Amino acid sequence: MFPFLIYWVVVMSESKNTSRQTRTKKSPAIKEQATYRFADELGGLEVLDAQYHHQNFSRHSHEGYTVGVIEKGAQKFYRTGGNHVAPQGSIILVNADDVHSGHSAAEGGWSYKAMYPLPAQFEQIRKELNAPCSSAPYFSDPVVYDLELANQLRLVFDTLEKSSNRLLRETLLYSVLTKLMCKHGKGRTTLSEPPKSQRQLALVKEFLDDFPSADITLQELAQLASISPFHLVRSFQKAFGLPPHAYQIQSRLRLAKKLISQGHRISDAAQEAGFHDQSHLHRHFKKAIGITPGQFAKHLQLKSK
């Protein structure tokens, strides 16, 4: 047993090719698998090892960055206003809170390994290691071709899975994040005083973040921002990648996930987060996270053991 617990869950599903045109030989069942691990001593860093064929991730966002390596096949995904394809051996980079999606770009699906470091972890690197680059980075390139870095990421994933040596795990992780940040990261250009339109939209975003379960109308949100409903929908989507109602669903998913992790029943979490019922939560949870709320709860049960 590792002295520093790593919690994991394996999720598998099957789907069969039911085409009636091929009668001589049936296609084998297609299996999808997702293994999640969390390293407590690394700030609860989440690590994913997944193989997907039919999974189609809806547009969603994470509080942390997505840093992944495509091991087989290819993935097509939306990020930063456009669609991108990440082939085998490439690195996927998604900034924290960036809206993105994902599905297979190859007939046989795709497999990849990824981790989700938080902005605070990059800030810690900058402050404690005096990294020669800016603060928490912005990765402008959704797909990066860097063989050396990809191999270093693979070493990190392998070490987090197999080694219990805390010093080794921490050293490799923060070394690769430092290299990633300094080599491919850029600082965001921010204005000292954002224009009034941005401040108005920020009020709406903050409300949806702070009160995800609120049954609020578009008209009420528009009044909060002092703009017309039509202007709000168009401007909000342009600024944050999702229209207000879709952004509200993401906020509700984050709340539901938090409630489930705190031990709430799935049905109670669904209701408290503002979903119509448990099936409504189930549908959006699976599309955004890749597993069901029940599978996530099972993972938490393994975590507590």
Descriptive overview:
A hairpin with a 5-residue loop joins strand 2 (30-39) and strand 3 (45-52). The chain folds into 2 domains: 6-14 and 29-184, Jelly Rolls, CATH 2.60.120; 196-304, Homeodomain-like (Arc Repressor Mutant, subunit A), CATH 1.10.10. It is globular and about 50 Å long. The protein has helices at 119-129, 147-162, 166-184, 196-210, 218-225, 229-240, 244-261, 266-273, 278-289, 293-304; strands at residues 6-15, 30-39, 45-52, 57-60, 66-79, 82-87, 91-94, 100-104, 110-115, 143-144. The chain is an alpha+beta fold and 305 residues long. Strands 1, 2, 3, 4, 5, 6, 7, 8, 9 and 10 form a 10-stranded antiparallel beta sheet that branches. Helix 4 packs across helix 5 (218-225). InterPro entries: AraC-bd (IPR003313), AraC_XylS_family_regulators (IPR050204), Homeodomain-like_sf (IPR009057), HTH-like (IPR037923), HTH_AraC (IPR018060), HTH_AraC-typ_CS (IPR018062). Keywords: Activator, DNA-binding, Transcription, Transcription regulation. This is Transcriptional regulator, AraC/XylSfamily. Pfam families: AraC_binding (PF02311), HTH_18 (PF12833).
